[in-house]
Amino acid sequence: MKFISRQPLSSYVIAIFIIVTITGGLLSQIVTNQIILAVVLFMQFFILLFLVVRFHRDYIKPLSKAVETVDEILNQNYYARFQYAPVSELVIELGTKLNRLSKHLAEFSIQEQMQSEHLSTLIDHVQSGLVLIGKKGYVELVNRKFLTMFGNEQKDYVGYLYYHVLDHAIFEETVQNVFLYEKRVKETFSHYIGTEKYYYEVIGAPIMNEQNIVKGAVLVIYDITELKKLELMRKDFVANVSHDLKTPITSIKGFAETLLDGGIDDKETAREFLTIIHQEGNRMQELIEDLLVLSRLEQEDLILHYQKVNAVELLQDVVLTLGQQAEWKNINLTFENDLDEIWFEADLPRVKQVVINLIHNAINYTQEGGDVTVAVTRKDDTIQLSVSDTGIGIDKESLPRIFERFYRVDKARSRYTGGTGLGLAIVKHIVEVHKGKIEIDSEINKGTTIHVYLPVSKDLV
Fold first, then answer.
1. Residue 289 is part of a domain; what is its CATH number?
2. Adjacent-strand bridge partners of 323
3. pTM value?
4. Is residue 391 one of the residues assigned to a domain?
5. CA pair distance 60, 327, nearest whole angstrom
6. CA-based nearest residue to 297, from 403, 434, 457, 402
């Protein structure tokens, strides 16, 4: 068919001329009148030529155009259209159906491209690592989150055998178990990015075809670092609460038993023991109150009672209140400020607790004769509260954990000064519920500075 459609019209004219010539040679043997023979042959030539030209115009050329259109469609040019003068019903019908097919293929291609883009976007924005492995063990797909977790680029994974490019042995074990047992497999492992340790959970699942034959495997890697940290914090919380309650309870119980065994008859001893029992009771009360404060701060329905607060007056009041405590330790507590008024909106009792906790900590961890400086400034729509001391300082390893519950840089000193280990955790929570932030700078044996940034109401800017 292609051979016929591709022949030029001149070739058909030559073929007709040859046929007429052969016919004339045969008829000349039986027809004596050469004029009649010539007329017959001439008419035969023109009739055949007319039929061939008509056939070529009505069928051969449209068919050739249709073949070109089909070739374009096969080359995925779905916008190609069959355009030819409607010389016959057959050509009209062929053109209509061919154009309709091209249109449907174009629409299908657009839908397929959109679905592919949506799927690709979805896969790349899933907040879990994703790896697709074919039935022969070659990696066919990795998403953006996986590359963020384990580094390299997509070209470093796709097209390679999984056990050559997936470094962790847990991946190889998971894939092997998926193909072997044809069921879902779940494992956990840890991974270091620089010096930071991350915890991941990998779930492997088989990909089955309609005949329930495994044709591949998919690995989904979840980042469970936060869950692990919360679990560790919960364990530390239980251990620390138990320890901090056990110590005063043991003391109270021991001294009470001594008093019951006759120690109460010695008034001096009884008074000493009762004083210790009272102090330990106060420690327990402070711990429980701090725990209740933290619990209330962590409630989702926490309501803050905002009011206009003059930061200068607030700090002056707190410095005055804690001045006696500083004097007892021979510490120079000063308040630095260039303005008489710096207004912002906040929950006054809670912000006051932040300042008290920070100054109280600074005094406790500063040696006698040291300095504690309190300052406040305003920058655009933010106020900055700063508490600096010349105390023992905090090492770099402890800085990321300083706001954790019960975390103590110097545990012996903290318990000696009566700290519960919850002060900075409370500070951090109060600052966060006010949509603020907190930063800390410290150096061992040189001191610590804590900056608290709180937003100013738009009406006060």
1. 1.10.287.130
2. none
3. 0.51
4. yes
5. 111
6. 434
Quote the CA–CA distance of 72 and 66 in Å, as a whole number: 10
- The tens-digit pLDDT sequence of the chain (461 residues) is 444 445 566 776 787 788 878 877 777 777 777 777 777 777 877 887 778 777 777 777 777 777 778 788 778 787 777 776 666 677 777 778 878 888 888 778 777 777 777 777 777 778 888 999 998 889 988 888 888 888 888 888 998 998 888 888 888 899 999 988 888 999 888 888 777 788 999 999 998 888 888 889 999 999 888 888 878 777 766 766 676 677 778 778 887 887 777 767 777 778 887 887 887 787 777 777 767 766 666 665 667 788 888 888 989 998 888 888 888 889 999 988 877 788 888 888 888 988 888 998 889 888 888 999 999 988 878 889 999 999 888 887 777 777 776 666 655 444 444 556 677 888 888 888 888 999 988 888 888 999 999 988 655 54
* Same domain, yes or no: 219 and 235: no
Distance CA 68, CA 343 (A): 79
User: Domain limits at 344?
Assistant: 307-460
